[in-house]
Structures are given as structure tokens and as C-alpha cells.
Write a structure and sequence with these properties.
Elements: E1 30-34, E2 40-44, E3 50-53, E4 56-59, E5 70-73, E6 79-83, H1 87-93, H2 103-112, E7 120-124, H3 130-139, E8 144-149, H4 152-166, E9 173-177, H5 180-186, E10 192-197, H6 206-212, E11 213-223, H7 226-239, E12 246-248, E13 255-258, E14 261-264, E15 274-279, H8 323-341
Parallel strand pairs: 7-8, 7-10, 8-9, 10-11
Antiparallel strand pairs: 1-2, 1-6, 3-4, 5-6, 11-15, 12-15, 13-14
Helix pairs in contact: 2-3, 4-8, 5-6
Length: 347
């Protein structure tokens, strides 16, 4: 029987928000340490604790009570840089079961879906909790984020990652193990401001989204492949009641900065997914007629997707985590959560 990760037992800590990200370092703070080789280590500060690597170590007490942004020199002459991790650092290093939505996409989603403080947001596909972190920061403690995940093991991983980041369960978060369409249809009509779909076949839930989304509200879908994007766009257009969809992708390329050797990095985060956005029109209103001519041969293809009934992660080439890996991540996160609750997290 797998260990259930339950955030209710998390020890009380600082208020969610600015107090956890500013001021002197405190016991219970998570910090990111860069060793002399540039490797990053994330630990939780504990009174009397000690951080040890083969390059030397640091007493936690030498950090607690001091400002953020320290460079500690050990008796051996080695330097360690200490900073509170940014959300980007945490997301890229946190344990994951499902693939995460990268920060470059999460930031775009926050802006293009217009996620505002106090918003009522529905997220289908919690995954490992990466996007949930960004959405919760955006809606604030007075907003409401409903995250729906079909798999209990993924939901456990997402809950643990989010609770460990905020230090306690976020008051605006409602994580449910359920079907997205069922949850949306059970809501009051026009009760949701924004809907985010991170799923294989979002076009199957257009009816449910149209029911729950407020007029003028934003529906944003994250899909991995061109075939998914094409099917989604055409189904939105056929459905009516939504504005003509827009689609794009973002790419992030770092730069190598060393004296006169300033050039793009050889590696970059290129394609991760497509973002498709549309807005809900008022009840009974049909979408505006398009004045652009369809491409040759595009007419009469209402059944063009009839042979694509078996959408799956394997069919679209998504990276699949094995059940063994999911169990391991879930077990490790449960142990980490318990250690953090007991103030014994030194790793």
C-alpha cells in the first residue's frame, strides 16, 4: 500500500506570500547553495544543522539570522553561494511524476490567460504541480484555483510539491481527483473566470468549458503536437460561442557570458508545447465570421479526425514516466515531507 502524502500534518510556518521570500534567513527557510563547481543543492535550514559536500560544509547556524544572498568561505578556502530559491529554481528541480509545464510557458500562460488576483481559475491536469504554483501566486490568497487531476498518484505529487513550496496548504487551492468535464458541468453557469486545459484531447471538453466560463473569460489549452493543435482549433471554430482561436509557442535560449566570449548557448529549451487561446462569447452569440479564405481542400472536412479516436500519450509522443518511477517519486516526496514536518530535512 502506497504512502499517502497529507499536507494537513505540515507544521505551521510563515504566512503565504512576501514574508516567506524576504528578510533575514530563518529556521525552516529553504535555501539554494551553489558549491565551488557550480552545482546547486536545496536544503531546509535547521538550528544546529550542517550541510556537507566533498567540497566542504556550512553550519546552518552561520546562515540563520543573516541576510539572504550570502557567500560563505570555508576554512579550506572554498566558497559557497547561498540564496533563497526562486520559483523557477524550485520548479526545475522538484520531483516530478508527470512532465511539467516549463517556466517559460507558465509565465506566458499567466499573462495571456490574464490570471489576476482574486480570479476564479479552473486547471485541468495538475501533473506535478508546476503550473499550479504559478497560478496560485497569480490569484493570491483571495482567489480560487480548482485543479483537477484524474490520477491520485499524480495528485499526491502535485500536492506535496506545492505545499513544500508555500510552507503550508495554500488557502486558495482546491485539488480534486475527478474528471474535468464532470466538475465543470456541475458548476454554476458562468462561474469561472479562466480555464486552463493541459490534457490530451481538450476539444472533448468544449461543452463543459462553455457552460462554466464567464462571458469574456479565457480558455487556454496547452497541447504538445501539431495534430492536437489543429484538431483543437478546428473544433473551437466549429463549436461557435468562442472567439477565433490564436496559437503560438515560446522558445528560450540562454547566452554564454565569459569576457569577450559572449555567444548563444549551444543548448536551448525549444519546443515544449503549443498554447491555444480563445474567449467565451455571450450566451447565444455565434463567433464572428472569418474573412480569410480557407486553404485549398479545407472545405468539407468535418470528419477529418474520425480516424483519430485513440488519443494517448504514446500516440502523440509524450514522455511517459513508468509506474515504478511514479511510486518512487511519491515515496520520496512523502519521506521528504515527513522529514520537513519534523525539522530534519538537511538534504
Amino acid at each position: 500500500m502506497s504512502t499517502q502524502i497529507t499536507p494537513e500534518n505540515l507544521r505551521p510556518t510563515f504566512p503565504i506570500g512576501q514574508e516567506t521570500r524576504r528578510g533575514n534567513l530563518r529556521e525552516g527557510d529553504r535555501v539554494q547553495i551553489k558549491d565551488p563547481k557550480g552545482r546547486l543543492h536545496t536544503i531546509t535550514l535547521v538550528a544546529g544543522g550542517y550541510f556537507q559536500t566533498n567540497r566542504g560544509g556550512i553550519n546552518h547556524d552561520d546562515l540563520i539570522g543573516h541576510p539572504d544572498g550570502q557567500v560563505i568561505t570555508t576554512p579550506e578556502g572554498r566558497q559557497f553561494q547561498v540564496l533563497r530559491p526562486l520559483r523557477h529554481d524550485y520548479v526545475m528541480g522538484m520531483p516530478r511524476g508527470a512532465a511539467i509545464i516549463y517556466p517559460k510557458d507558465a509565465g506566458t500562460i499567466i499573462h495571456y490567460a490574464d490570471i489576476f488576483p482574486g480570479a476564479r481559475v479552473f486547471e485541468a491536469g495538475a501533473g506535478s504541480g508546476a503550473l499550479s504554483l504559478a497560478l496560485l501566486d497569480a490569484v493570491g490568497t483571495h482567489g480560487h484555483l480548482i485543479s483537477v487531476e484524474r490520477r491520485e498518484d499524480f495528485a499526491d505529487i502535485a500536492r506535496a510539491n506545492v505545499d513544500l513550496w508555500f510552507g503550508r496548504p495554500h488557502p486558495a487551492w482546491d485539488l480534486r481527483i475527478a474528471d474535468a468535464a464532470d466538475e465543470l458541468c456541475a458548476m454554476n453557469e458562468g462561474s469561472i473566470d479562466r480555464i486552463i486545459f493541459d490534457m490530451l484531447a481538450p476539444w472533448e471538453n468544449l461543452d463543459a468549458a462553455a457552460h462554466a466560463l464567464i462571458p469574456g473569460g479565457v480558455l487556454l489549452c496547452y497541447v504538445a503536437t501539431v495534430t492536437q493543435m489543429s484538431r483543437l482549433v478546428e473544433d473551437i471554430r466549429s463549436y461557435g460561442g468562442f472567439t477565433d482561436p490564436e496559437a503560438w509557442e515560446t522558445m528560450a535560449r540562454g547566452w554564454h557570458l565569459d569576457g569577450l566570449a559572449v555567444r548563444p548557448d549551444h543548448r536551448m529549451v525549444a519546443h515544449t508545447g503549443f498554447l491555444v487561446t480563445t474567449r467565451r462569447l455571450a450566451p447565444g452569440v455565434r463567433s464572428q465570421e472569418r474573412h480569410t479564405r480557407p486553404s485549398p481542400g479545407a472545405d468539407g472536412k468535418e470528419g477529418m479526425w474520425d480516424d483519430q479516436e485513440n488519443w494517448s500519450d504514446e500516440a502523440v509522443g509524450a514522455r511517459i514516466s513508468s509506474p515504478k518511477k511514479i511510486r518512487k517519486v511519491r515515496r520520496d516526496l512523502s519521506a521528504k515531507t515527513q522529514a520537513w514536518v519534523e525539522g530534519k530535512d538537511d538534504e
